[in-house]
């Protein structure tokens, strides 16, 4: 008995030691990153985001416009004002706006930039409740300070020079602690590691420190960038922003005569084609999983670094598929929900698609609103905000409510593996798709077939509901098949089962459905640069059953006539 007791005590002691070691490990690792204050910066990375000199004039006059909120400082420091929103505060203290002052020809732009940075530094330690202290904001501020250090330090007084270097060093230490102690959110870890590495290269830190920080970034690169170049969140906007930071890092290695990690070069080369795959003819990126209005200047800056003759291929691991013929293009979300920790902005849009003709978008998803319309973000994530089939107005995945403090906004259950197979028919390319997002609650599988003819004149789809062998707690009453239209498209009912779409160019499309009468209803397009816009959607609804089978077609036509009873198609 005593021997058993001694063994139990020994086992408990070993377990306690292991727990203590694991708890101490992050602290010891953080202590191991001995970041010293540099006496100078050897080099400054480029900021390849577009800049506008007129913004510099607004800032000089005391107007700070971020995320849809404009504040007139009226001679006071903007850092001491009550921010109109947390997003505004993040943008102010992230200092990305320094790029506008950097390109300005204003004589006082340099002094203005230096004075504003000095005001922020003089605030001293930042409260943990201040958005400015968030790891992602600190990382963005570090990148901005490094990129625009020539603007700030050229001709600066020694006192400012020293305080600037101290602020950079403190930010780097904060980032290392956030990474190694797990305080940075999953999707922010990449940015934190990247900012830390740029600091080490610009400050000419010792080789051992650079090597350790490089390993941190390579770990996040391996974790977050998929084999096909997509981001693990499946959010095109995150991929876009990461490339705008990774490309200057690659240039930084070249400028210093250093060999960049092969994993970094390979990731960049894989990431850019994914953006091509998701791009419509008008330059916009498809509105999936958190994508909002596309900034053309950002894409242009990235594509300047593109490899010759890129070929947009299916993003198999990222879960996106593409059909194209002539000037017709279909982009499909054929992926499951991302890992929980990366799902905060993901949408319930399984099997949704977007359809465009040349530079004109026809069928879209509602998209994600900008931060100035954050109140609408949760609505935009719902399945009903996507061009797909919905059962009883329920989402095809489960999103934790905002009242859930631990998991607010995360997708806690959703479609697992989504089936997506490409085949060739006698007239064009075909995608066979299916997801099980409704299997648990309704015992139903949504199957969708999409086909585009080789001449690009017909886009054909078929929807089916298939029962699962296992019983479900509920039986769906109704399905609703939605096709959200771009605000520039005008829809008009023609005959009982036909709708005519008129594009801005005057091109006409005829939408037809079998066995069901499509209706035109109101919708909202969240991803407009000027904010949400009213638009229309085609909706087909009916009883949900295992026998449901619906075929629809978008077909180009030459003209139609308006008779006494409405529009009449007059040419095939």
Automatic annotation (TrEMBL):
Compartments, record wording:
Cell envelope
Its protein name is Heparinase
Q: Which part of the chain is the Heparinase II/III-like C-terminal domain?
A: 312-553
List GO terms (cellular component aspect). Answer: cell envelope
One Pfam family matching this protein: Hepar_II_III_C
Q: Name one GO molecular function term.
A: lyase activity
User: Which InterPro entries does the entry link to?
Assistant: Chondroitin_lyas, Hepar_II_III_C
Q: What is its main location?
A: other
